[in-house]
Amino acid sequence: GDSVTQMEGPVTLSEEAFLTINCTYTATGYPSLFWYVQYPGEGLQLLLKATKADDKGSNKGFEATYRKETTSFHLEKGSVQVSDSAVYFCALYNNDMRFGAGTRLTVKP
Amino acid sequence: KAGVTQTPRYLIKTRGQQVTLSCSPISGHRSVSWYQQTPGQGLQFLFEYFSETQRNKGNFPGRFSGRQFSNSRSEMNVSTLELGDSALYLCASSSFLGGAGTDTQYFGPGTRLTVL
Q1: Is B94 an 8 Å CB contact of chain A?
Q2: Quick one: average pLDDT of B33-44?
Q3: How far is A58 from chain B, CA to nearest CA, in Å?
Q4: Which of A35, B31, B81, B97 is deepest in the core (most CB within 10 A)?
Q5: Buried-exposed string A50-78: b where 16+ CB fall within 10 A, e elsewhere
Q6: pLDDT digits (tens, 9 = 90+) for B82-105
C-alpha cells in the first residue's frame, strides 16, 4: 500500500543553518503531497503542499518540490530560526492520507 | 472564523468501556476526517466523511466507528476499549471544493484518550 518514509530525527541545528528533511513516498498513481508542522502544544498545521509532479510548495521560507522521478518531496529552508522548532510530518493523499513518522527539529540560538 | 473544535479534550476510560468523541468542523466545511496518533504507530487514518457518508476507511477494527450529521459535525465511537486504544485522536475538516486530497485539511487540537 501507499506509504511515506521520512528522515528520522531528532535534528538539531543552530540558528541560520540550512535545513533539509528528506521524504520519499510509495504510491500508485499521482498522489498529492504535503508537509505538516506541529509546534509544541499546538495542533497540526499545513505548511505547504504540491498536487502534481514538478510543483513547488512554499510557505514561511520553507520549500519542497514534488519529484515524481525520485518519488521524493524533501523539505528545505535556507536559514532556520528558533521559532521553527517543531515536529514536521510529510504526508501523501491518494485514496486516504498517509503520514510519515515525523521529524523533530530543534533550533538553538 | 472558528477553527476545528474537539470535545472532550481529555478522557480516561477503563478497558471494556466505550467512548464517543465529537468534532465540529470549520463552518462551511463538509468533509471530516479522523486520525489516531500514537508514539509507536504515528498518525494513522481512521475514516473520512463527506455529506453524512463515509467516503473512506482506514485499516482499523470494527470497534472503531463514526458518523456525520447534517450540520457536518462528526462523532467517532470506540467500543470495548483496549489498552492499545490510548492515543491522541485528531479530527480534520476541509471544504472538499477541489476534491479529496487537494484541499487543505485543518486539524483540531485532538482528544487525548487514556485507557486504564
Answers
A1: no
A2: 92
A3: 14
A4: A35
A5: bbeeebebeeeebbbbbbeeebbbbbebe
A6: 999 999 999 999 886 655 566 788
